[in-house]
Amino acid sequence: MVCKSFTQSVPFNTPIQGGLQDGMSITVCGRVWPNADALEVNLQYGSDVILHFNPRYEGGSGFVVHNTNQKGVWGEEEREYKTPVPRGQAFALQILVTQESYKVTDTYKHRMPFSWVDHIYVFGKVELNLVAFQYLAVRNIY
Ligand code: GAL
């Protein structure tokens, strides 16, 4: 996949027309700056954060925080103790929407309806090269 379609300024915000559907995927490509402390990719409904995908690089070991923020209140964090999006390297993230969960680098069960998602927000010290929406042609693969 050719990921470098453009370099978009960050914070990046764009509407998702018609919301998300089961079987849809969102691709986010870029490169996290070597001195970044975190990256944030949010699927939002207004100011509510339905999916917060948040790789952090504090200290030596990196991890990813997944969470939901409803009416200004964060829920319980789900942490993935891996560094799937290392600093200084190009990345291609695919967020797949299924009936039960989002599948990014880990699985995050829905806490709010995915059909409510109305925009995607990307923030951090990151060069952002692509944000694309796809409907998978083959659905019965998971
Ligand atoms: C907070 C942080 C937020 C968000 C949240 C996720 O500590 O300030 O930006 O990442 O954790 O649980």
From TrEMBL:
Gene Ontology molecular function, alphabetical: carbohydrate binding
PROSITE patterns: GALECTIN (PS51304)
Pfam families, per database record: Gal-bind_lectin (PF00337)
CDD domains attached to this UniProt entry: GLECT
Domain (Galectin): residue spans on this chain: 12-134
Keywords, sorted A to Z: Lectin, Repeat
Name assigned to this protein: Galectin
Taxonomic source organism: Sinocyclocheilus rhinocerous
Gene: LOC107719197
